[in-house]
Amino acid sequence: MQETITHLGAWAEPLWTRFLEKLPEILQATWETLDMVFLSTLFSMFFGFLLAIWMIVTNPLGLNPKPAVYRVLDFVVNLLRSFPFIILLIAIIPVTRFIVGTSIGSAAAIVPLTVAAAPFVARLIESCFLEVDRGVIEAARSFGASNTQIIFRVLIPEALPSIVLNVAVVAITLLGYSAMAGTVGGGGLGDLAVRYGYNRFQVDIMVYAVIILCVLVLVIQGVCNLLYKVLR
Predict the structure, then answer these.
(1) Is residue 196 part of a domain?
(2) What's 38's domain CATH number?
(3) Is residue 1 part of a domain?
(4) 187 phi/psi in degrees, rounded to 5
(5) Domain assignment of residue 111, yes or no
(6) Whole-angstrom Cα distance, residue 111 to residue 174?
(7) 15: pLDDT confidence band, cut at 50, 70 and 90?
């Protein structure tokens, strides 16, 4: 038994030493991932929210039906959502360079992350708006509320709890995308896992990156669940 414990200690010691050596890089990669996910979630929610409002207004059953405009928006959203992220990441490199000035690093990854998530967000928020009871909307309209008032005083407050839950879906999806961006120099935990876990066969570093990603997912979902309960 003592020999087994000694053997395990001897095996674990280099792993612990390497963890301490790489701790600054692990913390830096974690910060880059948080930065990418937070900013891309913020930007994608903003653009997706605007797009969702435009879609809910022009929807054939919407506040100001314009079927032709809605079909164009619907087509664009579906088209952008159909792109695999890794292909989109490479395809819009010229756009990324134009906006950020570079195509590598965590700052550059925010552009494709936002482009990939915005149509996804638009579809999620549109679904939240469509779930709002039409009787409430008609009641507001009967009191003389304008379309703008209906959007900001009826649709958004009624759909807000569902939107908060969908923020968790978007943020967790972008967390996975950010790890994928690391494979092409996007920085963050994905880049750390590829450089050490794949290229240098230091599997323990990759395991640390995966554990941190799992913890971040649990935290994001937990916070959004708490906000949902408060709003309900």
Answers:
(1) yes
(2) 1.10.3720.10
(3) no
(4) 80, 180
(5) yes
(6) 12
(7) low
**Do 217 and 34 touch, CB atoms closer than 8 A?**
no
Phi-psi sector, 187: left (phi>0), alpha (psi -120 to 50), beta = left
Query: Which residue range is the domain that position 40 belongs to?
Result: 10-231
Report pLDDT digits (tens) over 70-83: 999 999 999 888 88
Q: Which of 52, 66, 178 is nearest to 125 (CA)?
A: 52
At 33, the amino acid letter reads T
* More confidently predicted of 141 and 223: 223
DSSP symbol at 194: I
- Does residue 12 surpass a pLDDT of 60? no
The single residue listed with the structure tokens 């990156």 is 209
Q: What is the mean pLDDT of the chain?
A: 85
Domain count of the fold of the chain? 1
Among 108, 85, 113, 111, smallest CA distance to 185 is for: 108
Q: Is residue 5 part of a domain?
A: no
